[in-house]
Amino acid sequence: MPSNSFAITSSYEDIWLIDGVRTPFADYNGVLGGVSPTDLGIKVAREVFKRTGLPPADVGAVVAGNMAQASFDAYVLSRHVGLYAGVPAGVPATMVQRVCGTGIEILMQAADMITLGKIRLGLCVGTESMSRNPIAAYTHRGGFQLGRVEFKDFLWEALRDTAPDLTMGDCAERLGREYKVTREAADAFACASFDRALAGQADGYFDAEITPIHTESFELEGYRTRGMRLPRGVEELAHDNHVRPSPMEVLAKLKPVFGGVQTGGNSSAIVDGAGAALVGSGDYVRAHQLTPLGRIVAGCVTGVPPENMGIGPTESIRPLLDHTGLTVDDIDRFEINEAFAAQVMGVQRELGIDHARLNVHGGAIAIGHPLAATGIRLSVTVARELKRSNTKLGIASACIGGGQGIALLIENAD
Hints:
Layout: E1 8-11, E2 15-22, E3 26-27, H1 37-52, E4 61-65, H2 77-84, E5 93-96, H3 102-115, E6 121-128, E7 135-136, E8 152-153, H4 154-158, E9 160-161, E10 166-167, H5 168-178, H6 183-202, E11 216-218, E12 226-228, H7 248-251, E13 271-281, H8 282-287, E14 294-303, H9 312-324, E15 333-336, H10 341-351, H11 364-367, H12 371-389, E16 393-400, E17 404-412
Parallel strand pairs: 4-5, 4-6, 15-16
Antiparallel strand pairs: 1-14, 2-13, 2-14, 3-13, 6-13, 7-8, 9-10, 11-12, 14-17, 16-17
């Protein structure tokens, strides 16, 4: 199948993913359910500076992403993340929205600005509170009509694409039928995701990319103090808490949600969380004698029919490989977002990806999918895995609601 001719590809010659960190991902309405996504973003931004020792004053731009308007000051989320992380007031901030691909888009936008010579160092943050999605009404500002008072669950309604009038789960079921994914196969994929994530927790793999969360305050001289508070009796959140033993016999008992193979057990977990990364120019990296996670080689974003949104990674990975002269066999590790088992399995089968190279520490089915933060996690995880396995090339990719795909190629810095 030829690559999408409308795909937008970018090459990056000397741009580096310096380091990245994320919060633990916490189950919907759980430990992080009361925390603003702005404060989650501030936490990881502060942590990435702490880990690297780099001064926030060196940042030339803040690029942040968030999907849900989950607090009343959401308009200025990106600005507050930068300011409370110590970035100078004169540094501009922008908000990015590319649904499930937002986190990867953030990294690409920072890389683009470095390529254009506008900045040397970018602060990239993706943050999401799925729990704080509002119960919303859009038609009542002029008053209520008799019998026509209507409030809806933003989170649930946002999962439906009103163009094809299909939910994202329905789109996954379409791929499941096209690629002949059985319920047993979907559950087996989910079981493997949980098992791999459990192994990653047991051997400490995730510890290096996670910052534990505590109740704390974020001060900024001359401005109101922000912060986050965990529920009473909770001292710390240190690990992804959706990760749990999920054997086949347990998964098999769950009822389908969309009338096919997808259940709550083999679909991405609804969680809250945030991730941050620093992206820098080669000159900046060498001047500070840094050992970065990896080199950002190239990226691609493309569109697909809305009803086939789940196949988006295929249609972004193929042009990316064509653009760089590589093949699927050249890529040592893939981190492809597990929105739904049938969806990611369709991508896997279409591209011919060996499961041994795909989401080797588990994926969103086990870990969770906080929309704007996921792409940061995928990219940082694949860069770290290349170092761990002493391999060379990795791709982070995601399907995108509305019908898009995005992919990022990263090379081991060692």
